[in-house]
TrEMBL record:
Residues 1-124 form the Protein kinase domain. Keywords: ATP-binding, Kinase, Nucleotide-binding, Transferase. The keyword Kinase applies. It comes from Plectus sambesii. It holds the Pfam family Pkinase. The keyword Ribosomal protein does not apply. InterPro entries: Kinase-like_dom_sf, MAP_kinase_kinase_kinase, Prot_kinase_dom, Ser/Thr_kinase_AS. This is Protein kinase domain-containing protein. PANTHER family: MAP KINASE KINASE KINASE SSK2-RELATED-RELATED, MAPKK KINASE. SUPFAM superfamilies: Protein kinase-like (PK-like).
């Protein structure tokens, strides 16, 4: 197995994504705050992981899944990248001819244009 590949196994998220939840009904303020807090906790873990900082690069409601207890879990790490020693990513996507793969509407300009970026790209 290639040591540069990361494989994640997660539990089944029976409540779907936040996107699915908000299609018919807006979130109550307390629920929105809970989801925001839990999302930032997950990002903080990734951005300060002891083995090397990880930038997700595709944070959106479709990639925030809900457990049976309605807790948020980050999903879809297909574009995630471990940052280099300088804590910047110099990797351009190998999936799109333009150098970009992901969701344009949610991408930080640095990710979109393939320029070096840091964990701050997840907060864009």
């Amino acid at each position: 197995m290639d040591s540069e590949k990361l494989i994640l196994f997660t539990e089944y998220m029976e409540n779907g994504s936040i996107r699915e939840k908000i299609v018919d009904n807006p979130l109550k303020e307390a629920t929105a705050l809970k989801y925001t807090f839990q999302t930032t906790q997950g990002l903080h873990f990734l951005h300060h992981y002891k083995e090397g900082r990880i930038v997700h690069r595709d944070i959106k409601c479709d990639n925030l899944l809900l457990t049976s207890n309605d807790d948020v879990k980050l999903a879809d790490f297909g574009l995630a990248h471990k940052l280099g020693i300088d804590n910047e990513s110099t990797m351009m996507s190998q999936f799109a001819p333009s150098g970009f793969a992901g969701t344009v509407a949610h991408a930080a300009p640095q990710v979109l244009f393939g320029t070096p970026h840091s964990c701050r790209a997840d907060i864009w």
